[in-house]
Amino acid sequence: VQLQASGGGLVQAGGSLKLACAASGRTLSSYRMGWFRQAPGKEREFVATISGSGGTTYYADSVKGRFTISRDNAKNTVYLQMHSLKPEDTAVYYCAAKPALRAGYTSTYDYWGQGTQVTVSS
Fold first, then answer.
1. What are the residues whose beta carbons fall under 8 Å from the beta carbon of 73, sequence distance 6 or more?
2. CA-CA distance, 97 to 95, in Å (whole number)?
3. 99 forms bridges with which residues in the sheet?
4. pLDDT in tens, 12-23
């Protein structure tokens, strides 16, 4: 599975951005998809995940209520809608995929996109 993330940019605090992750090579519905982020000098952290069918989602506490993960399997694309952005959301955001039947929400992802930069100014 090849993943290509896009949609990052510079936004003021309180603003919104929508990231997209386009997948190719395999049928996306066979994979659980996740979004992760890495801020400068910090470890990569889990943000959100969605099941293969899109029926189940799970979020990090830091983004719950502000971010929404969704997917369009017909378009082989996963999205991360981000609202009420804060300066601490500044990071490179990565999408990732793993087989849908593998257990766990926040780890053991096999495939990673190249990342898209999100910068939130105060």
1. 27, 28, 29, 52, 54
2. 7
3. 31
4. 999 999 999 999
